[in-house]
Design a protein that fits this description.
By secondary structure, this protein is an alpha+beta fold. Among the domains are: 3-157, Acyl-CoA dehydrogenase/oxidase, N-terminal domain (Butyryl-Coa Dehydrogenase, subunit A, domain 1); 160-275, Butyryl-CoA Dehydrogenase, subunit A, domain 2 (Beta Barrel); 632-782, Butyryl-CoA Dehydrogenase, subunit A, domain 2 (Beta Barrel), CATH 2.40.110. The protein is built from 23 helices and 22 strands. The strands form 5 sheets. Strands 10, 11, 12, 13, 14, 17, 18, 19 and 20 form a 9-stranded mixed β-sheet that branches. A hairpin with a 5-residue loop joins β7 and β8 (245-256). The protein starts with a strand and ends with a helix. Residues 1-34, 446-525 are annotated as: Disordered. Its cofactor is FAD. Residues 42-156 form the Acyl-CoA dehydrogenase/oxidase N-terminal domain.
Length: 937
């Protein structure tokens, strides 16, 4: 570099003398942790990378090279050495085509390499391959590729990207740097770039400058590769709040050869849009988030006075919390940690979606922005929680590779992460600009209004009951579509952002110009499951305007639609359990989207799951269920409204002749008034002894709807918020609605869907009505297994329904906002409106991803013996969908204004149903308690 201010000259040849190798056996510490789940081959490669990094980054190797002024935490010598070793292994370009010298492996291999690099805090994030390989491959000529790519792949050169300029930030249309042509074919580069990561150690700098200063703002821009050793290049360090240096690069009439031009002259804006789009990857941030979560979880689970458990991500010897209890024993801490775990899963789904899109050749800018927003904002919340839960000790500063701070959890990394993660939401394009990009690319909201004034939600696009919501592939990588564009620095450029300020509309207020573009297709529920299109075809004649009349009938739903669903959509009894799980999610989402009331969760999904687990004992009932000759309803809530297995309020006394006498109450049975047969759990009381009256860990099960009363216990089985010490033996009974002594009480709810309580007073049943009897089996008994499967599949159905309801509100909101003109301009021209709409879209996507992941976990598990992993996945789906749907309801009514409050708008039908589904089978707090129990293991 021509001149560096305030930085010692490092010997780059010296790097080769540091040995960094590994013997590819995953060790303890950071060596064992959850991955993104991208297939067996990618996971095998991830294990190999993990083993190497675990060995290469031991304290003995890194301590001599700790450098808190470098963003990586390590000095340049170590960084270059590690990159060369990664290059020698062929990993830096593992996903590049073999003909270019890369590994030729799928995008999933690149993703897991990035994930592991970030998880281990390895200085392998801002490599030359990561930053510059995409534009070099896409736009470089043969000589540039031949000269640069081999060295980049071997890890022999460092690069930086310098787009942002002082005072311009993300607005690259305001760039002032110039590169004026000279007579010999070269250029003279002058300008000032700021907030450049790694600018002080880079060999080459990828930058942009104006080659035609007279051209409009987004034209006449070209891209260059600048040798930082050229005269006139100066690097100036600027210390950040986290203690590391970013750099300003000053170009003072730097003479560039003709070969420094990358791509086509004056086409730099198009190239820049591509380069920054390719730079956005969620895997680095996901790796950082997973590592911090693992550190926090280890800290919270450690008993007072002990070191963090061996095998955790936290460094050995970290001080444990004081006070005699682990933080995770505090129900409030457990609830917060469970919520963060569910958030992390949602962010992981977004990052994985980017990889799967790339594997399919369908990478979308909207998906990249979604992942960026979710991950960086989660990282900040997680870091805030880490410092909060650790108290004053959480403020003791440390670094990933320096000496562990005495008395600090995780060696002082909590405080380090808190300061470090502030830049994520502004780096690579601010999150506000990414939300703008989402609103434009995914929702079609921009400064120009759309054609049609919307009606009620099901009339916003034809056919009603179907969502015109297909997730767009988004602009191609070369397009200059609206949306943020990163620079690789804390203030990334936005080459594709719309010009500041919308053009004024010439149409009268409240009317839409006839020249406005039509809305794009948008379908966040779309997937490859053929059932989805089949359900949409089935619901093609359904209109939201029919809802009130249908709800007023005795059944409360359309019996013809119900029969058609059973005949045409629901899997046959002979189908494997995975088919039942998949159908549950898809049907629930589509019914929610159409706001079509059918007794899906209690009357079909829960009942069918319970009967399936019973095997031969439930076969006849499964056949009757599918024929529609008998309408079923599973009773999952106790007398206080808590879902199984928090308590079972109905007791069963044996009679000498083999019959049973049932007494008690079960509540909140959906469509109870139209059911012919109830599947009812009952607690056995033998010889006058009620073995259900045992100690209960977690509080009074008769508390407030089984929600927070038992949150501390966490939950050992299913969705319980606590655990019986000695589980009572249960029966699962088939009880006809006409049984003497059975009294039904119905309720008027805000959703107007039918809901009822059952009171049993000395009801006598025959032995053959007992479908399952735990007898002495306890938790392993068939009744408990069937009921656990029922409430788990039912919770999945509710998550799907909430997702569909949220998507329906999103559809109505986008159509309303996209068509409205206010204050002489399109309503969507207001940035606050676009960003609020983008948040609704994020909520729908996270709910959908959580439900899909839960269905996938259930499909791989035996329904009769569910482990904690699928149960936690379903709990996360219910939590995520509930919170997301409630936020969407609030946001939809806000964005739709007074019109949204009118009955004719139809939004309230969705909002009412969301509130009803929120509490079914337990509120979010109950399911977070189940997750907390999973995290304790």
């Amino acid at each position: 570099m021509g001149h560096q201010v305030g930085r010692h000259e490092a010997s780059r040849d010296e790097a080769s003398r540091h040995e960094v190798d590994g013997h590819e056996v995953c060790g303890h510490g950071a060596g064992r942790h959850e991955g993104p789940g991208l297939g067996a081959d990618a996971e095998a490669f991830r294990a190999e990378v993990c083993a190497w990094l675990t060995d290469a980054l031991t304290p003995a190797r890194t301590a001599p090279h700790a450098d808190p002024t470098d963003r990586t935490g390590l000095d340049e010598d170590f960084e270059r050495c590690l990159q060369r070793e990664a290059g020698r292994r062929g990993w830096l370009g593992i996903g590049l085509p073999a003909e270019l010298g890369g590994g030729g492996r799928p995008a999933s291999f690149t993703a897991v390499f990035q994930y592991e690099a970030a998880y281990h805090h390895a200085p392998l994030v801002d490599t030359a391959v990561t930053l510059a390989a995409p534009p070099v491959v896409a736009f470089g000529d043969r000589e540039q590729r031949a000269r640069l790519l081999p060295a980049m792949l071997r890890g022999e050169i460092e690069m930086c990207i310098a787009y942002t300029e002082p005072g311009a930030g993300n607005d690259l249309s305001s760039l002032t740097s110039t590169a004026l042509a000279t007579g010999d074919g070269g250029y003279r580069l002058s300008g000032h770039k700021t907030l450049v990561t790694g600018g002080g150690r880079a060999d080459l700098c990828l930058t942009v400058a104006r080659t035609d200063p007279t051209a409009p703002a987004r034209r006449g821009v070209s891209m260059f590769l600048v040798d930082t050793t050229l005269p006139g290049v100066t690097a100036v360090p600027r210390r950040t709040m986290a203690g590391y240096d970013l750099w300003d690069l000053l170009f003072d009439d730097v003479a560039l050869p003709a070969g420094a031009l990358l791509g086509t002259r004056d086409e730099g804006w198009r190239q820049l849009a591509y380069a920054v789009e390719q730079e956005r990857t969620g895997m680095f941030t996901l790796g950082w988030c997973q590592r911090l979560f693992d550190d926090v979880r280890a800290y919270c689970a450690a008993p007072a006075g002990s070191a963090v458990p061996a095998g955790s991500a936290a460094p050995a010897g970290s001080d444990a919390p004081a006070g005699g209890r682990a933080p995770l024993d505090d129900p409030l801490v457990a609830d917060r940690l469970a919520a963060l775990w569910a958030e992390l899963r949602a962010a992981r789904h977004a990052a994985v979606r980017l990889v799967t899109e790339e594997l399919a050749g369908e990478r979308s800018s909207a998906s990249a922005s979604v992942a960026k927003v979710l991950l960086t904002e989660h990282a900040q919340r997680l870091a805030q929680f880490a410092t909060e839960v650790a108290g004053p000790a959480g403020t003791i500063a440390g670094t990933p590779f320096g000496p562990a701070a005495p008395g600090a959890p995780a060696g002082g990394r909590f405080a380090h992460e808190y300061l470090f993660r502030f830049d994520g939401t502004v780096s690579v394009g601010t999150n506000e600009l990414h939300r703008d990009g989402i609103a434009t690319a995914a929702l079609g909201l921009s400064a120009r209004p759309r054609r049609a004034e919307p009606g009620p939600p099901d009339q916003a696009a034809a056919p009603a009951g179907q969502a015109p919501l297909a997730t767009p592939a988004g602009p191609t990588p070369l397009a200059t579509s609206a949306g943020p564009a990163p620079s690789g620095t804390p203030a990334g450029p936005t080459p594709s952002a719309a010009p500041a300020g919308p053009a004024p509309s010439t149409a009268p207020a409240g009317q839409v110009p006839s020249t406005a573009p039509a809305a794009p297709a948008l379908d966040p529920l779309a997937d490859a499951d053929p059932r989805r299109e089949a359900v949409r075809a089935l619901l093609g004649s359904w209109r939201l305007g029919q809802l009130a009349a249908v709800q007023a009938t005795a059944a409360g739903y359309d019996r013809a639609l119900w029969s058609a669903l059973l005949d045409e959509i629901w899997p046959p009894a002979s189908a494997p359990p995975a088919e039942l799980v998949a159908a549950t999610r898809v049907v629930a989402e589509e019914l929610g989207l159409a706001r079509c009331p059918l007794p899906l969760h209690a009357g079909l999904a829960q009942a069918d799951a319970a009967l399936l687990v019973l095997g031969e004992q439930g076969r006849a009932h499964r056949d009757a269920l599918r024929r529609g000759t008998t309408r079923y309803a599973l009773c999952a809530h106790d007398a206080a409204g808590a879902p199984f297995p928090a308590n079972v309020s109905v007791v069963a006394h044996p009679a000498p002749d083999g019959r049973w006498r049932l007494s008690g109450r079960t509540r909140y049975v959906t469509y109870a008034d139209s059911a012919d047969l109830f599947l009812l759990p009952a607690r056995r009381v033998d010889d006058g002894y009620d073995d259900g009256a045992v100690a209960y860990a977690g509080g009074d099960a008769g508390g407030d709807a089984g929600g927070d009363a038992s949150a501390e216990a966490g939950g050992a089985t299913g969705h319980t918020a606590g655990a019986y010490i000695g589980r009572p033996r249960l029966l699962l009974v088939a009880l006809p609605a006409s049984t003497p002594g059975l009294r039904l009480t119905t309720h008027d709810t805000i959703s107007v869907d039918h809901l009822g309580d059952l009171d049993l007073v000395d009801v006598t049943i025959q032995p053959e009505q007992v479908l399952a009897d735990d007898s002495d089996a306890g938790d392993d008994g068939p009744a408990t297994a069937a009921l656990t499967a029922a409430v788990t599949v039912g919770s999945l159905a509710l998550a799907g329904e909430l997702t569909g309801l949220a998507a329906g509100l999103l559809r109505a909101t986008v159509n309303r906002v996209g068509a409205r003109v206010a204050y002489g301009q399109p309503l969507a021209a207001l940035q606050a409106v676009r960003q609020r709409a983008a948040d609704l879209y994020l909520d729908v996507l996270t709910a959908r991803d959580a439900a899909a992941a839960a269905a996938g976990a259930l499909a791989e598990a035996p329904l009769g013996v569910l482990g904690t992993d699928p149960l936690a996945a379903v709990a996360a789906a219910k939590v995520t969908a509930t919170i997301s749907a409630v936020r969407v309801a609030t946001g939809a009514h806000q964005l739709c204004g007074g019109w949204g409050h009118l009955d004719e708008a139809g939004l309230h039908h969705y909002t009412r149903a969301i509130k009803a589904a929120e509490s079914q089978l337990g509120p979010a707090s109950l399911h977070r308690a189940s997750i907390a129990g999973h995290l304790r293991r």
